[in-house]
Write a structure and sequence with these properties.
Length: 176
């Protein structure tokens, strides 16, 4: 069984400071929690003249408070390029399972233009994971294959040249 590092693990292990982990700002979490607490507190200060407004303040405050707490614990960390602070997004292209060896050979032999010849699929049993910036100046890819009960990295994560990036981005646009 292959024991290749995932794209994220490659990003984490790089020492060249080209890529860094970017955690989402805590500002949104603080605003949600503070707004929820303010609504609940303001409800206690307003005389109870109308039950619907009081209930609306309480429910909205509790909702914002819960949303803020959940957001604080489940924030996704992402990756950004250090040179221009662009966010790296992950996308996937699905291929027919029978094309696994050809897909790996294409990526290993630097003939990315042959990717279009491979048979597409609608299921994720064999996929090409692509990590790229929106402007297409940076791209890593890796073949991920499904074996019973788990996904494995079928090859090493690979950085692409600008010509290869253009071909991969065109393929991503066609397959959406």
């Amino acid at each position: 069984m292959e024991n290749n590092l995932s794209i994220e693990q490659v990003f984490d292990s790089q020492d060249n400071n080209e890529i860094h982990k970017a955690k989402p700002s805590f500002v949104l979490t603080a605003i949600l929690i503070a707004t929820g607490l303010v609504l609940i507190t303001v409800n206690g200060m307003i005389p109870a003249s109308d039950g619907t407004i009081s209930t609306l303040f309480i429910l909205t405050g509790i909702g914002l408070l819960i949303w803020g707490i959940i957001y604080a614990f489940f924030k996704k960390t992402g990756y950004k390029l250090s040179r221009n602070k662009e966010r790296i997004t992950f996308q996937e292209i699905y291929f027919d399972v029978k094309e696994r060896d050809r897909l790996i050979n294409i990526l290993n032999s630097d003939s990315v233009n042959e990717l279009e010849k491979l048979k597409p699929a609608n299921i994720d049993a064999l996929k090409l994971r692509v990590a790229t910036t929106p402007d297409g100046s940076f791209c890593y890819s890796q073949v991920v294959s499904y074996v019973p009960y788990e996904f494995i990295n079928a090859n090493e994560a690979r950085k692409h040249t600008p010509e290869e990036i253009r071909i991969i981005l065109d393929l991503l646009k066609k397959r959406k």
